[in-house]
Design goal:
3 domains
Length: 177
């Protein structure tokens, strides 16, 4: 297996897989690395709770205030999801971080930047039609959860992705009728 990855196979995350299995002094397997992620971050539940509360607050502002204030709350508040999650995890007695030898550290860091780097797409959609802000952002959040299936070793994230993307598809097609 190490020879296969060492020869530069261009498949999903070959460097990560090679690092997991092939480095001489590296002893952490995929299942152990995923278990540590689940334990350190409470299976992602705290982050999802904080994110969900932020989305609810934004929806409330969109309903009872202005769309602009709701969008600003979601975008600016989104920058604080990770720090708020870290605080809540620590208060709950969870580590909130992975050990240095966990090879999924780098994947987690990369996933953290997916949404901020995708915001220009949401911005472009919202500039074309302000009503597209929430649907476009929801699709990106759903897509953002898909790699969590591997990171956490939890297929539930694929279901969450499917629910978010399908809900947007259903709601937007029904609103066109």
């Amino acid at each position: 297996m190490c020879d296969f990855f060492a020869k530069g196979a261009a498949y999903a995350a070959p460097f990560l897989i090679h690092k997991l299995y092939c480095n001489g002094g590296f002893k952490v397997g995929v299942k152990q690395a995923q278990l540590e992620v689940r334990e350190a971050f409470a299976g992602g539940s705290i982050g999802q709770l904080i994110s969900g509360l932020l989305w609810l607050a934004s929806a409330a502002l969109a309903t009872w205030s202005t769309q602009r204030s709701a969008i600003l709350l979601l975008v600016i508040g989104g920058m604080f999801i990770f720090p708020a999650t870290q605080l809540a995890l620590r208060l709950a007695g969870k580590a909130g971080k992975l050990s240095e030898n966990n090879p999924l550290n780098s994947l987690g860091m990369q996933l953290a930047f997916v949404l901020p780097l995708s915001l220009p797409l949401v911005y472009a959609a919202a500039m074309y039609n302000p009503n597209w802000f929430y649907p476009s952002f929801t699709i990106l959040v759903g897509a953002h959860y898909l790699p969590f299936v591997f990171l956490y070793g939890m297929p539930q994230f694929a279901i969450l992705c499917g629910v978010l993307v399908s809900a947007v598809s259903h709601i937007t097609t029904k609103s066109d009728e």
